[in-house]
Amino acid sequence: MGRLFVEFVDDAVLAKYACCHCGCDIASEASLLWEGYMAQCTPALLFRCAVNLSPCSPKREETLSTGRYILVDVRCHVCCIRIGWRYLHAEREEQKYKENAVLLQQGLLERVNSMQALRRPALPRHFTAAHGQQAAPPSPPGPPSPPPQRQPLG
């Protein structure tokens, strides 16, 4: 199995959204198009662009309250949790702005301020990404050893 390619959202933005399960970056607040959507009876956010998402279902045609769409479910690229869907095609002209946008369930996202992101490391130092598991944390340094004592001559 190859290495996992993970993209990061620009830290210069005010805030970003991350997966609440694994902490992986998903979208910046600057790409947020609309709040207040409902996705399967849960609040959702519509983003113009997002990263670290993979399709997890075949394309399907669905009729929603605002018209007919072709959708594909998307999941977090790291932890594989289904997190929302991507609009591939909108039938009505006034809904075309949704094409290629993603609707993500708000309960599965964590809003992270840019200052929080700077204080929080992405992975613990003892995380071995090659194996995807945690290794034993490095042992703390012991107390300093005392200086050697001089032996009297004679």
From TrEMBL:
Family matches, as InterPro entries: Yippee, Yippee_fam
Membrane-spanning residues: none
Superkingdom of the source species: Eukaryota
Domain Yippee: from-to ranges: 15-113
Pro residues bias (residue ranges): 137-154
Region ranges (Disordered): 126-154
Name listed for the protein in its UniProt record: Yippee-like 5
